[in-house]
Amino acid sequence: MQQPDLFEPLLAAYRQVQIHDEGISNTKLYETLNVANGERSPVGRARQPHNLAHRRVRWHQQTMKAMGLIERVPGQRGTWRLTPQAQQDPELTPAPEGVAMVACSTNLGCAIWVRSETLISQFTESIHAIITSPPYPLRHARAYGNPSEEAFVDFICGSIEPLLKNLVRGGCIALNLSNDIFLARSPARSLYLEKLTIAMSQKLGLSLIDRVVWASNKAPGPTYWASITRQQLCVGYEPVLVFCNDPVACIADNRRVLQPHSPRHAQLLARGGEQRTARYGDGAYKLRPGSFSNQTLGTIPKNVLNIPTTSKEVAQSRKLAKSLGLATHGALMPVKLARLLVEFLTPPEALVVDIFGGWLSTALACEEAGRRWIAFEKMAQYVAGGSLRLQHCEGFMASFDLPGWNEAPFRTVGN
User: Fold this and answer.
1) CB 363, CB 375: distance < 8 Å
2) Assigned fold of 7-87
3) Which carries the bigger pLDDT value, residue 199 or residue 14?
4) If we measure between CA atoms, which residue out of 149, 207, 147 comes closest to residue 180?
5) What is the DSSP string of 239-263?
6) How far from chain centre, in Å, is Cα 277?
7) At what angle do helices 312-323 and 380-390 cross, to 10 degrees?
């Protein structure tokens, strides 16, 4: 099982929990990250038992110390706090109103530095899918800002509505959203997801065709309600709401994302399917000789997707972006998740639009899947950082020059 990258969870814990003058003790930090009682294994020549999760936390602390993000609290053993540098939000440059600039392009698409409302009403090309991860309605906004919970539904509907005229019949809209939105000073969850679903139906005439569950190795949370008051379980997933303008004509096709058969099912196919007769669930399910004998190319994925939040490619991208002085994006949709949505919801050579492009995860997924794409991103530093992820794509061109292009060992994206 892939271990989660603790860098972002640690940084989030220091930012969310710490009392600025006192910092956070390692004991409190272990509790916050749910590793207080982790597995103990023999380590080193002495083979003394140590909590391996604690060692990983301390290793990341040393990395963060070297980067100037945290410092020890004088006179307190095992207690750290954010440095003044880390407490400052990174500088971001929003696109001026009415301005649009192509930040980078490839043979398949382009990323535009723009406020999406500047262009979407002028869009004329047919769109097969809108796949995006909008800014969540967080109570404490990230550096790039976000609408409030009260304004979120109108914000999303207003951002999508101008593009509906371009969405082909059976085209889909996939929104990666947050499950961690709570009422003020309460462990009660917001109903913003339900309100958005109803508004997308009643205001925009769209139909909900699925609630995909993205189960990830995200940091334990909600920090206060799960780790402090203990009134909540840790959230382990985010929802992806998928809508369609004409469900009967929906162009999604799960044959484009079939997964390999399990060894057990492959053996069943090899011997000609079931050899027995059985009934299950009060007769609702029946097995007959020959059941599951049809040879198929793979198994249909379930709508619960286990995908890590981080990857080697993201780590390399962040390292290069930091070396160039670019603010890194702290809330990326994984390319693996975006690619499955792209391939499932659109046929080859379709056009996918991302109206909240961020670090261009959807764009990179389209490059890997052979789909055309257009991404809008408001913040200059993000679209520049996202461009770093696309620099090896065929036909790549950038409208700006940064020292260090082509210096990182990025994977090469095929046609």
Assistant:
1) yes
2) Arc Repressor Mutant, subunit A (1.10.10)
3) 199
4) 149
5) EEEEEES-GGG----GGGG-BPPPH
6) 44
7) 130
Give me the residue label for tokens 């009967």. Answer: 248
Is residue 32 over pLDDT 80?
Answer: no
When pLDDT is cut at 50, 70 and 90, the band that residue 21 belongs to is low
Query: For residue 257, how many other CB atoms are within 10 A of its CB?
Result: 18
DSSP string, 30-66: HHHTT-TT--EEEETTTTEEEEHHHHHHHHHHHHHHH
Given this model, what pLDDT does residue 226 score?
86
Q: Where are the domains of the chain?
A: 7-87, 100-254+301-398, 260-297
Q: Which two tokens stand for residue 16?
A: 């969310």
Q: Grade residue 338 by pLDDT with cuts at 50, 70 and 90.
A: very high
Segment 157-168 mean pLDDT: 96
**Peptide bond before residue 222 is cis, with ω within 30 degrees of 0:** yes
**13 Cβ contact list (under 8 Å, min separation 6):** 24, 29, 32, 33, 219, 223
Closest CA to 306 of 216, 241, 237, 212: 216
Fold of 100-254+301-398: Rossmann fold (3.40.50)
Query: If DSSP codes are grouped into helix, strand and coil, which group holds residue 6?
Result: coil
Average per-residue pLDDT for the chain: 83
Average pLDDT score over residue span 134-153: 78
Average pLDDT over residues 293-309: 86
